[in-house]
UniProtKB/TrEMBL annotation, chain A:
This is 3-hydroxyacyl-ACP dehydratase. Residues 9-105 form the MaoC-like domain. Pfam families: MaoC_dehydratas.
UniProtKB/TrEMBL annotation, chain B:
It comes from Pueribacillus theae. Transmembrane segments: none annotated. Pfam families: FAS1_DH_region. This is MaoC family dehydratase. Residues 7-140 form the FAS1-like dehydratase domain.
Length: 136, 150
């Protein structure tokens, strides 16, 4: 993928993720080391008034998978998100993205969104990548 | 706590973490990311890496397995764990980071904002982490905004 082939407004292919399960939250807790009990322990979810919710960073991980599906991991230089809504087990997340801006030095800036099947946005992010040029 | 602004400048003990291939694989499996560069050396080399790279959000693993636990961090910040949410997360990648690298992380609170809304106030606490590899190179910077609801 070359810098010249990317245009502002281009959309990337949607990444559809499998439905989030409680087992996945347990796996993510162990893999990431985020043992906040709000993600795995029913009683704590009730105490917080939210019920069990998915790790925000799991959803960011899915968004990162989207970004590195669209442009190679090697080329990604910045990635930031704002968490908008909580995600519960049973929800299915899809990741969409588009090109917002092309800057000097072969930099592209893109938007990435994670939303559930009803279109509720869970996180909104921005990524920056440096792509090779055909002129290099 | 008396004044949440007092948190600005608070430094955490530096921590160290050796990145293992198996941990990277466990992490991408939990996310369901099947990109072969994270477990197949040939695929990683084909993309221009010299080893198995870390996924974009793997820096969190380094923080939580190498540094403070969630509970310890809440105690250090004097925050009620059931009142907090993750507001924002920023990552900047300066150099490639590979399985086998040993990263040392320095971490401190760089900003506190207090917001008042109709449904009550909240504190926004920004922590910045700097990641150096075993050669002393700064390889990544992250910033985390924690929301503490009053």
């Amino acid at each position: 993928m070359y810098y010249e082939e990317i245009n502002v407004g281009d959309s990337f292919p949607t990444l559809q993720k499998d439905e989030i399960t409680r087992v996945q939250l347990v796996k993510y807790a162990g893999a990431s080391g985020d043992f906040n009990p709000l993600h795995t322990v029913e009683e704590v979810g009730e105490q917080a008034g939210t019920g069990i919710i998915a790790h925000g960073m799991l959803i960011m991980g899915m968004a990162a998978q989207g970004v590195t599906t669209w442009i190679p991991r090697k080329n990604v230089k910045k990635f930031q998100v704002r968490f908008k809504k909580m995600t519960k087990p049973g929800e299915s997340i899809e990741i969409t993205g588009k090109v917002l801006e092309k800057k000097e030095n072969n930099i592209i800036v893109g938007e990435v969104l994670a939303m559930n099947s009803e279109g509720e946005v869970k996180l909104a992010g921005i990524f920056e990548g440096v792509l090779p040029s055909k002129n290099d | 706590m008396s004044n949440v602004n007092d948190l600005v400048g608070l430094e955490f003990e530096p921590y160290c973490f050796e990145i293992e291939k198996g941990k990277i694989r466990e992490f991408v499996q939990a996310i369901g990311d099947d990109n072969p560069i994270y477990f197949d050396m040939e695929a990683a080399k084909k993309e221009g890496f010299q080893g198995i790279p870390i996924p974009l959000t793997f820096l969190q693993v380094i923080d939580l397995w190498g540094g403070y636990s969630f509970q310890e961090k809440m105690e250090k910040l004097k925050l009620n764990p059931v009142k907090i949410l993750h507001g924002e997360q920023h990552f900047e990648y300066l150099e490639d980071i590979y399985a086998g690298d040993v990263l040392t992380v320095s971490s401190k609170v760089i900003n506190v904002d207090i917001k008042k809304g109709s449904s009550g106030g909240m504190d926004l606490i920004t922590t910045e982490n700097q990641y150096k590899n075993q050669h002393g190179d700064l390889v990544a910077i992250s910033r985390n905004v924690t929301v503490h609801r009053h």
